[in-house]
Structures are given as C-alpha cells and as structure tokens.
Amino acid sequence: MIERFGWDALPEAVRDEVQAHIGDVTVIRDVAEGQNCNLALVVRGDAGEVFLKGVVGISPRMRWLRNEAAAGDLVRGIAPSTRFSADIEPEWFVVGFEYVEGRAADFTPGSSDLEIVASTVAEISRHPAGPAAPLSERWASSDWWVKLEEVAPDQVADWDLEALTKWSALTADLVGGTSLLHTDLHEHQFLISDPTASVRVIDWGRPAAGAAWVDDAFLVIRLIAAGHQPAEAERWAASIPSWSAGSDEAVTSFACYVAGLWSYRGTTSPFPGASGLSRAAKTYARYRLAK
User: Was domain 7-98 assigned CATH 1.20.1250.20?
Assistant: First the structure.
C-alpha cells in the first residue's frame, strides 16, 4: 500500500511551497481514488479550488505525475490545466491542477455518454504527441503469453500460444505513429459535467506517441468489459474517424497483445477489476482471431 498524507501530515516544506503558489489553504476533501500518489486533496486557495496531487520518492510514480503536469499544455481544454508544479526537498513532487467537477462516464450499452466519449477521443487523436515516448518502444516485449503460461498455465490451456506470440510480435511496428495517445482511458478518466455535458480527461500519467486508432481500440475492450458485444463495441469505434486507419492486421495484433499483457499483469500484480479486464481482452482477441 502507498502511504497517503493528509494536509496536516505533510512536511512543513511541502505545505509552505503549496501556499506560496495558491495562498492560505483550506482543505475541502480527501480524494480516495488513485493508487499511484501519496497526496490527493481538493483544497481552496486565493484563486479558488485546486486539486493537489503529490508523490514522494524517485520512482515511476513521480515520472507519471510529471507527465500529468505536462498534459495541460499538450491537450489544452481536454486535460485539466496545471496551476503549478514544484520539486520540494526531500524528494517530493507536487502539482496543483485546475479542479474539475464531474461524474464518471457510463460505458454500458445504450448509454447517452458514448457519443460524447467518442467525440472527445476523436479530438484527442488530432493532437500531436509532442515529447511523449513512442508506444512501440514501450511494447517492444511481446512474450506475454509465454510468461502467462509459466505462472498460470490453466489460463492458456485452450489457446494457440504460437499464433498468439506471432501476432503479438507484430504489434510494436503496427501501433507506431505520431498522434497523442492516453493509453489508459476508461470510465473514470472522463469527467462529465452535467447538464452542459462538457468533458475533461484526467490521469495522463502514461501518454505515448502512436497510431491514432490505438485509444479507440483500448476503449473497445473497455466497452466489452461494460457489457457490449465485440461487434457492437467496434461499431461504436467506427464512429471515430481515426478508427478506420487501423488495418485488420493491426487491430488483431493489438487485441492479442493486450489480452496477453493484461492477463499476465492481472495474474502477477492484481489490481481492482483486473479479472474483468482480462476476460474482456481475451473475448476481444478471440473475436478478432475468428474474423
């Protein structure tokens, strides 16, 4: 478990730095969501409410938060803007984000949110990746199915591992591109403000450069997890212009790769919802392989 800090438990240097940027702090509430930070608070300063997020210690979590802090400039108007960011000794990194009120999107079949989610993803896909690292580099390893067999052979008993590994090996080249990708879009990353239906997309910890259709494909799996049939989820994705740029080969290789990756990680490093995501990804891989 990651240690979480309330305002009063923070080092004095951290509190002083925050107040230097936003004035005297009044804590509005703790934010329970989020598994990768040591600090998550909604506070009020001189300029209004701010979402305060921080991590302590040099780690991937600190790098992810730095990515989030930069996202406000990459996708202005979609990601919450960054009010300030600060490195504070010893080894704290704290960011004050624009506070956005909103509810999570509803991905279930028939939801009226699906149209605005599609238009938001289409808008993201039109942004250049800027300094984000290529997804092809992150996905250079392609042996997830082999690794899964080693730790959970029952999960791969009725799968053709040789074929899956070959498909997965194609993926890094086929997801290459220069579009900005979020790579972790799901219901809770979309904050929808009713009744205006304005949307912000949060948690840009692992952005990447890649083919514009990749975030669409991730969401196909999320829709399957929410109760859609694979063909229905793909019909939704087809409403996003970038989806048509993904060839059948590319989408099938993506599905095989993600099914292996998510199943392996869900087995070796379980997280909330891991089993459901693994099932949805495998369902999609079977659907693509049968086409």
Answer: no
